[in-house]
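pinging the channel bc i need a second pair of eyes. not urgent but kinda urgent?? the chain im working w is below, pasted from the shared doc
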Amino acid sequence: MKSWIGNGQNLPVSGEQIAQALGGTGALSQLASSFGINESDLADQLAEGLPEAVNHLTPQGTLPNA
């Protein structure tokens, strides 16, 4: 995740890693249900978009003030 916030290349993350990070909370299941897709597809989609989203939300490699 540090690579997404920093000013370098964004390292990839896999759908499996996303699922593992959210697995015990039930959040992935609830979110997938809300979108009408299965958990694996949602995890893959998050893995594809999350690095760029975090990068975009952290200009100059810093977290925005709350």
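so Residues 14 and 47 are 5 Å apart (CA to CA). and The mean pLDDT is 88. — does that match what u expected or am i reading it wrong
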